[in-house]
Amino acid sequence: MTETPLGLSQTPAHARALPPLRVAVAGLGAVGLKIVEALDEGLDGCVLTAVSARDKAAAADRLSALTHPVPVVDIAELEPLADLVVECAPAALLPAIVEPFLRAGKTAVVLSSGALLANDGLVATARAHGGQIVVPTGALLGLDAVTAAAEGEIRAVRMVTRKPVRGLVGAPYLVENNIAIEDIISPLRIFHGTPREAAVGFPANLNVAVALSLAGIGPDRTTLEIWADPALERNTHRIEVEADSATFTMAIENIPTDNPKTGRITALSVLAYLRKLRAPLRVGS
Ligand SMILES: NC(=O)C1=CN([C@@H]2O[C@H](COP(=O)(O)OP(=O)(O)OC[C@H]3O[C@@H](n4cnc5c(N)ncnc54)[C@H](OP(=O)(O)O)[C@@H]3O)[C@@H](O)[C@H]2O)C=CC1
Ligand SMILES: O=C([O-])CC(=O)C(=O)O
User: Fold this and answer.
1) What pTM was estimated for this model as a whole?
2) Quick check: CB of 110 below 6 Å from ligand 2?
3) Helix axis angle, 94-103 to 121-129, nearest 10°
4) Where are the chain's structural domains?
5) Where are the bilayer-spanning segments (predicted)?
6) What is the distance between the alpha carbons of residues 204 and 285, in angstroms, rounded to a whole number?
7) What SS3 state is found at 209?
8) Which residue blocks in the chain are alpha helix, DSSP H?
9) Which ligand minimizes its atom distance to the CA of 50?
10) Quick check: CB of 263 below 6 Å from ligand 2?
11) For the structural domain made of 13-138+265-277, what CATH number should be given?
12) Average pLDDT, the chain
């Protein structure tokens, strides 16, 4: 971690006094493995206590270098082992991972945020049991500003996503609409609609658009364009917000992980969130 001006990377006294937050990670791909490795190296106030993976033998292999080994268990076995779960698995597994934690009044950090729209009963579950669903900023930026603007009136939120072809190939929307992008030689707009529609058509690509919509004016009023660009190496998102408090434009170019759909900053966003939970000074909301 970069040393901060106020020494935030040092373990604060009160974090040492509180029992560490027990963290489970569900899914050991591009996001999950990075989070697991960082927790194993040590993150103030948190301790990794369990992970879940599709192939337990392969997971044990991937985790063999950990200093503090943890059990690899089925999704259904995670909840008793942790206070908080980080969901970073395929979107279809979202309810199975998150619901037990919410029912126990615990926290679920959700990366497959697009799947929240088809599973919106989870919010009622969280409310009924005192649990909390956290959608981190993930591969995006500026959700603090969008939620602040939403305390006033937001008139419009527009997002334009441009991705390398390899990060989009195979998306259900492209398959269903016979849109071939493998051989394009110039940028092609492949989608214009809402985050709600994109969550169905691009379930592994546009979690960020749903997160933005949940922060602002919702998945039906936010507008979204998706472009496939053969010249791009990075997933790029440009966002414009018009509100009664401010007008702002934000842009991010995400360096991909081994998974071309997922930017490196995604896992770091979760680590930053976890670090803030027990920090004596919290910057950003
Ligand atoms: N909110 C945001 O900003 C972002 C969200 N995402 C989303 O986060 C999620 C994780 O992304 P990423 O890490 O890149 O995805 P990966 O595909 O790299 O990893 C997903 C992992 O989940 C594992 N998995 C599959 N089935 C199970 C199971 N039954 N139990 C436990 N684990 C299982 C897979 O195992 P195996 O490899 O063996 O199949 C794989 O290791 C995705 O839904 C992605 O769309 C991604 C980027 C940004
Ligand atoms: O939306 C996602 O799930 C991932 C994404 O665009 C990115 O990493 O830039």
Assistant:
1) 0.94
2) no
3) 20
4) 13-138+265-277, 143-254
5) none
6) 26
7) helix
8) 13-17, 30-41, 56-62, 94-103, 121-129, 143-150, 172-176, 195-201, 207-215, 265-277
9) 1
10) yes
11) 3.40.50.720
12) 94
**What is the distance, to the nearest Å, from the Cα of residue 19 to the centroid of all Cα atoms in its chain?**
26
Nearest CA to ligand 1 atom 45: 204
At position 151, the amino acid (one-letter code) is E
Confidence band (pLDDT; 50, 70, 90) for 85? very high
| Number of the ligand 1 atom closest to the C-alpha atom of 269 | 3
Grade residue 62 by pLDDT with cuts at 50, 70 and 90.
confident
Q: Cα–Cα distance between 114 and 92 in angstroms, integer?
A: 10
Nearest to 126 by CA among 116, 118, 140: 116
Q: Tell me whether the CATH fold assigned to 13-138+265-277 matches the one assigned to 143-254.
A: no
Share of the chain above pLDDT 90, in %: 87
CA-CA-CA-CA torsion sign (46, 49, 52, 53)? positive
CATH code given to domain 143-254: 3.30.360.10
Concatenating the DSSP letter of every residue in 144-192 gives HHHHHHHTS-EEEEEEEEEE-GGGTTT-HHHHHTT---TT--S-EEEEE
Tokens standing for 138?
């993930």
Ligand nearest to the CA of 112: 1
Closest CA to 185 of 165, 205, 162: 165
Average pLDDT over residues 81-102: 97
Mutate to test the pocket of ligand 1, among 51, 261, 264, 273 (most ligand atoms within 8 A of CB): 261
